Amino acid sequence: FNRAVSTGGARRVLAGVLPVVYRGFEVRDETLAYDRLALAVTGETLTEVYLEHRKSLVMEEQGGARARVDAVEVLAVDQVESHPDGGFVADATWTVAGTVTHFGHRHFRQNRYDARVAVVPVDGMWKIRSLEVLDQERVK
What we know:
Elements: H1 7-24, H2 30-38, H3 44-61, E1 66-82, E2 88-102, E3 105-122, E4 125-138
Antiparallel strand pairs: 1-2, 2-3, 3-4
Helix pairs in contact: 1-2, 2-3
């Protein structure tokens, strides 16, 4: 984990970590959701992501949309730099595709995200330390 990560290596790491985060949002049980998110996210970012998960569940209970993620695809990784805690910081672009159900209707959605992501090794696993979304766009 201590050596510099290449652009391709960073892309592979993110392709493994990001889907775990999105799958965590599909879990309704709060304890299980937190545990799943903890597999891919660490530090204050884990709390932020978990609170976002709870907010989405409240919206769903109030008749809002329920989403199911079908695919997460990392499109590009640029500006890979070493992170002081071992790992890396990179600019990344990815898409999340899935089905949104609300009011008895189902829609396919695909969103594209551009973000600055820091990923560090924790107990032998890659985890997101910070994630700053720079741009978000609905593609479909």
